[in-house]
Design brief:
The chain is mainly α. It contains 13 helices and no strands. It folds into two domains: 195 residues, no CATH class; 244 residues, no CATH class.
Length: 454
């Protein structure tokens, strides 16, 4: 099993990287091809696209990962991926027309198609996960990333903004055709799905996973926008740069959460039939210890190398970076809980849990940003995640969501490591963070050794 899981992690990471490199690479070269106004407009569209395709597509991907195994589930979920992509496009159309957010009405049709294709891409990935076809997922995203970059650049180079949109739509169309012929269902038997009627499966997937995840996604986006509004009114130039850079590094670390999440979700779904508590423990340990080690490693390497610290107030940047990365450790742990909720078909709980986070985040932002500007915004993100976890911990424990075996001596030592990292922050002995990361990676190694016995 370990060999299979390792292979899944590898291919999942390769596919994710190529997908993101295509977008980042295109945005980088477009600054030399498009004029300033067109480049600014396209960036604005990408932000909107990430919201719609991210919320709808990611929610459908999770749903596909949960229910898309076996031929009956596969066929139905693929139709649902197509349907949710249409819904995402329609919602974007209404958003653009009502709020006049589109670049230009002449471009609106191209924008709608891109929203459809990107939502479908994100959605259909879940079917690859569910059918244990991580290599196929990687191949698809490698091809899409290359086409996205090359066709987008060629179109922009010869025909400016209109050519860019046409090129991206051609890449999206090719992806849809390719995925239709390449993606095939697994022959793995799943009696729960095979014995269920089509209508029952639709109701279960929509009620228990899809809708709760969409609502939770749309709770997150307004909160970030409100926080940005508070911050723009309170922070100076150095503060805004420090917060923005620190947040980018937080999202880079989030790469591990995304890649590991798809593999661990697959393990949890497969585990439903046997209910092996060791696999449930692995869901928590392999989300927490490697990511905590990665955070300590990022903190040590960035500070000791002084990368980007010459762009703004270095101490201000490091404070924001430290707080946001610490907060992301909590979100990594929360992702384990979210996967357990989805696999147990209790996704509705996430609506109320994330509503708690939304309220806490807004309240902390209101008070802390006025006092500490960018550092207050980072602290608000940390405290909202921490208090959300504390408030819901008893409920998760009472419902058996938390795996109690996870809270062993290694976990308590990891809390001590975090306390030591606070000392490192104030003392300036930044090289100690590297040692802390090695301890966390050793804990990861011991968990892998336990997993070998499965």
């Amino acid at each position: 099993m370990l060999k299979s899981v390792s292979s899944s992690f590898l291919w999942s990471g390769i596919g994710f990287v190529f997908n993101k490199v295509g977008l980042i690479g295109l945005l980088s070269v477009l600054s030399f091809v498009l004029n300033k106004d067109d480049y600014s407009d396209f960036n604005l569209f990408i932000i909107s696209s990430n919201v719609f395709s991210g919320v709808f597509g990611a929610s459908m991907s999770i749903t596909a990962n949960r229910y898309g195994i076996g031929t009956p589930g596969f066929s139905l979920i693929r139709k649902m991926c197509f349907a949710i992509s249409l819904i995402s496009s329609v919602v974007f159309f209404l958003y653009s027309v009502l709020l006049k957010n589109s670049i230009d009405l002449d471009f609106l049709i191209y924008e709608i198609l891109i929203i459809f294709f990107t939502t479908f891409l994100t959605s259909i990935n879940g079917l690859y996960y569910a059918n244990n076809n991580f290599k196929g997922y990687a191949y698809l995203n490698i091809i899409y990333g290359i086409l996205y970059f090359s066709l987008g650049y060629i179109g922009a180079y010869f025909y400016e903004l209109i050519g860019l949109f046409i090129g991206l739509n051609i890449a999206g169309l090719f992806f849809c055709i390719f995925s239709f012929f390449y993606l095939k269902p697994s022959l793995i038997n799943n009696s729960d799905i095979q014995d269920s009627s089509t209508s029952l499966l639709v109701k279960r997937s929509i009620k228990n996973v899809l809708v709760p995840n969409i609502i939770s996604g749309f709770l997150f986006q307004p909160a970030i926008l409100i926080s940005a509004h508070y911050l723009n009114n309170a922070a100076d130039g150095d503060g805004l740069i420090a917060y923005s850079l620190a947040n980018q590094f937080r999202m880079i670390g989030g790469f591990y959460i995304v890649v590991s999440g798809s593999v661990l979700m697959k393990l949890l779904v497969d585990n439903l039939a046997i209910s092996d508590l060791r696999i449930e423990r692995f869901n928590y340990t392999f989300s927490y210890y490697p990511y905590l080690g990665l955070v300590f490693l990022i903190l040590s390497l960035l500070k000791l190398s002084n990368i980007f610290f010459n762009l703004t107030d270095s101490y201000l940047l490091y404070r924001n970076l430290y707080i946001l990365l610490l907060a992301s450790v909590i979100t990594a742990f929360k992702s384990s809980i979210a996967r357990k909720l989805v696999s147990s078909e209790e996704g509705k709980i996430s609506i109320f849990s994330n509503l708690t986070w939304f309220i806490l985040f807004i309240v902390f932002n209101y008070f802390l940003i006025k006092e500490w500007a960018s550092v207050g915004a980072s602290a608000a993100f940390l405290l909202a995640n921490l208090f959300q976890l504390i408030i819901w911990a008893h409920y998760y424990y009472s419902k058996g969501i938390l795996n109690i075996s996870f809270f062993d001596f290694k976990f308590y030592i990891s809390l001590l490591l975090i306390i030591i990292s606070v000392f490192v922050f104030f003392s300036g002995f930044y090289y100690l963070n590297f040692i802390l990361s090695l301890v966390c990676f050793y804990f990861t190694y011991t968990e892998i050794q336990k997993f070998k016995t499965l």
